[in-house]
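Incident log, structure service

09:12 report received: a user says their structure output differs between two submissions of the same chain.
09:20 pulled the input from the user's history:
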Amino acid sequence: MDKKTHSFQAEVKQILHLVTHSLYSNKEIFLRELVSNASDACDKLRFEALDRPALFEDAPNLEVRIWFDAEAKTITIRDNGVGMSADEAVAHLGTIAKSGTREFMAALEGDKKKDANLIGQFGVGFYSGYIVADRITVESRRAGLQHDQGVRWSSEGTGEFEVEAITRAERGTDVILHLREGEEEFLSAWKLKSIVGKYSDHISLPILMKKETWDEEKKAQVDTGEWETVNKAAALWTRPKSDITDQQYQDFYKQISYDQEPPLAYTHNRVEGRSEYTQLLYVPAKAPFDLWNRDKRGGVKLYVKRVFIMDDAEALMPVYLRFVKGVIDSADLPLNVSRELLQESRDVKAIREGCTKRVLAMLEDVAQSEDVSQKAKYAEFWKQFGAVLKEGIGEDHANRERLAKLYRFASTHADEGVSFADYKSRMKEGQEEIYYITADTLTAAKASPQLEIFRKKGIEVLLLVDRVDEWMLSHLYEYEGHTLTSVAKGSVDLGKLQDEAEKKQAEAAAEAAKPLIERLKKSLEGRAKDVRATTRLVDSPACIVVEEGDMSGHLARLLKQAGQSAPESKPILEVNPEHALVKKLDSAEGSEHFDDLAQVLFDQAVLAEGGQLEDPAAYVRRVNALLTGT
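09:34 re-ran on a clean worker, output below:
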């Protein structure tokens, strides 16, 4: 066949123009795409040879070879796969049979215009070679054809390409890139090996490059003439679990996470069903520095049929599990999958749900273990990641109960590590609610006067001091039928936990205190929403509470610290009629110091609750006046 000149399909011309003039980012993607194509050609040959073993000819071992010529400024990617006939070269390299061209063109508009990753996401990966080359030559022979039925395809990526017949002994394809000026950085074995390691390390067939050694006389690396495999050629996650040691799992984790500590736990499974995929997922033992950046993409790498697609595929894992590292290899997703397509795919949703359940199961195994070392591991995990895991209660309704079982808190019985199950096991006979209090610090929570009646009764109260706890409580209302109840909201009704004598005593004290309470309401008008006798105090004179349904003082402070507005709501002052200070206040009726005593009592209650005084100077003046009797 004489050399013939053909014109590119119109869509190809558009793509080539964009590739050569617009795609500047991440140029190294070209090697990923060409190696992926070479691997696909080998897979196709393997499939066709099932019925026609003779197609293997005299080379049954499939492989990809890469080499460069610094003088000629060329890079060659060779595979011994199925190859192409002359007609196939014209059809495959000059036209685009697939749909998706229009979407590809649209995706290159706006901010994505320079994203070279898109070239592979729409099935036009061959043309990525023109990101770095001003001419590409392809030499190929289809498996099963005669040696003189090879083909050479060549083009500068403009409007035309040339095709001619050649004699080629080997089946398969050579893609020869003639690099344009300024792309000499790719004429380096180290550079090419690093790209292979980054994108194609887990291609299942060997990728070979020339072995180099240091020549002291030339002060340079020189070609030894030997070939070496530069990828692992067998993805860890594709191997049977029985063939992989714990050390190999840990080494792989360190490779993908850049973490020098071993993981807390890992899981390796092949999932079959509506979606077929392999998952190898790790839970780190230590939190990364950017854990609190919710905009950071997740730590899961996506592969499709062992071909690397993208890092940090956030669609595969919910935001509250953003600390999980690992690999997901799908057998169903297309190689041209994009981040936008990931968000919409039903297969991806199934993978996400399956991976979420698997991670939660891993954590459950550690959390529920009776082994002392495992318990210690989970306690440390909770310190590192507990606050992030609490985000899940509002984001993942389907797993709300499982998440609640993983949560740990401080309480009046223990400074840390209290689960809802632990709390429930210690509930008093007749107790129906789970009691909690929120505060800025554990010290403040422990010192809260609202806890006094609960301490007296031996009733455990959870002490919630993470900033995320208030948000968590807006989504977590109960646990296994027991309502979560704040000890600082509404009236305390201990129900069956309070005997009749105590109830009558409280009622009598409240009745006797009515005149005092009325005077306090007048003195504190504008500051307190209401004043009432308390049933929750034992040792303190007064405390601040809010109505059921109102925003807690703790949450209001958090919002203000974050620069957000909080609804204005006045607190309720509860006083303990049995306390000496309240009795003194009652005896000060008509005294000029009554109003000052009332204001001091209110201010002290605000401080004890962790709040800030609107007028600290006025509080100091009143206290000084009372101390000096002036």
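09:41 both user submissions now match this output. Likely a transient worker issue. Closing.
09:42 reviewer note: Residues 97-101, 110-114 have pLDDT under 50 and may be disordered. The two ends are 116 Å apart (CA to CA).
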